[in-house]
Amino acid sequence: MPRHFRGEQMTDNIVMPQPLAIALRQALDEWRATSDQWIEKTITLALKLKAARDACISDVIFHVWLDKNGFGEDVLSKNVRAALINMAKYHEVSRKILQLTDRRSVELIWDKEIKPIIDFMVSERSETEPKTQPSSNTQETAPPAPENSEPAPQQEPQARGEIKPGPKSGLYGRPSADKISQVFLNRSKTRVMLGHLNGPTWKLLLQAYEGGLLPIPTEATIHKQTARIFFPYGSERYLNGFDLTSRTGRTAAVDLLAQMIAHKDDLLAEPERVEAILTNKQQARKAEQKAAVVQERATKALAALPPDESEVIMFGKRLWPIVEGETIGAYDFRTLQVAVWKFRDLNCWMHRDSPRTRGINIRNSTKWDRHFIGELLKDSGEVRFKIDRIYQLVHALCSLMEQNPDGECREPLTPLVLG
Question: What is the pTM assigned to this prediction?
Fold first, then answer.
């Protein structure tokens, strides 16, 4: 009886060990079902497929099993299987590349993005390892791998040896040039351009590297000295707008680089959204700074309130004291006091209705008397202005209630009623 699987005798039907078959089927179904967590599901499928291949003693046995157990060419093509198994061998590198690419074809991702990096890592390691002359009795020749077949298992490449640019390179003698050379793999154009960087620009590049913006080797071709050297993984247009050959451009790049390092995790997760991410972060930072300034002004204004006035907050919005940058409008405390209590009475009488219905009814119930009082007092100047301001504030309170009906309310004291 032939041994088709390692450590196990099998029949001619070549039935896969059940746990591996179940795990592979589940991983394949999840990979195809949804785009959520695509990266992790791709790595999981790759590892399960490699585990199945490792259980077989040859490619032939593996291919026969695939066809007879529902994983044939129509389910997973030969090239897709080969790409996934290769990705499983270098799964840590593959995971990082998957986080940066916008491709969804595992064949192209392996062939165009992962394989060149792996080949470079292996070649650099071989160049730095000491070469020994094998004896005539111990020379061995590795057989070539069959074309388009799932490759045999091999160990993940070790860390690359340090690259020392030669005296003819523009990088020769620069601080940490060996580390930078391990990131930018394009020797013919990108490294030549890096060799022409002046001292201040090279320091900025080192900050980008040491700040974690360049964690993965790249074959990106960069012709010009722009901020793209800080982050060569995503969109070119935005970063190419920062010209590092001018002092003005480098000055702008200093702040840009600081923001990129601060938000490197977000950038690495979505490298094509560099501009949007940085813009949103900058807007959020400005909003926080503005809020801090407004809060400081509010604290001072509250401390300066006279004994017969109090803080007024309605539906989460501060209305008194008036604080620059926060409250809108011009009114005094007495006017606001009357408006709040007029609104409160009307609102309580309609408590069974929804906030929107109450707002509409309050506005409708006050529009005619507001119009009539305005006509009566049209020549009275300040008096008409103050009374009309009460109605304006009542309508503004209706809008605040509709927008945030559960917001905090701190009403002023009840106004003094004479009569």
Answer: 0.49
